[in-house]
Design a protein that fits this description.
Elements (H helix, E strand, L loop, with lengths): L5 H15 L15 H28 L2
InterPro entries: Luciferase-like_sf
Protein name: Luciferase-like domain-containing protein
GO molecular function, one term: oxidoreductase activity, acting on paired donors, with incorporation or reduction of molecular oxygen
Length: 65
């Protein structure tokens, strides 16, 4: 389970992907255990803030290879 700010979450995802040498990452948000408004906010934050950080990191890593 990853919990934290968008930057903290991005750092955790990047660290996990690098450590386990993954080529895919799937996000699962537990629908129903949080109020609907908070679930939508989590989705928005992931899409607008976290995902771009992760994407940019791996794009820069692949360009340097």
């Amino acid at each position: 389970m990853f919990v934290g700010s968008p930057q903290e979450l991005a750092d955790k995802i990047i660290g996990l992907v690098n450590h386990l040498q993954l080529n895919r990452f799937m996000l699962h948000l537990p629908i129903g255990s949080m109020p609907h408004k908070k679930t939508l906010e989590a989705i928005r934050l992931f899409g607008k803030e976290t995902a771009p950080i992760v994407r940019q990191h791996f794009e820069s890593v692949s360009k340097s290879k």
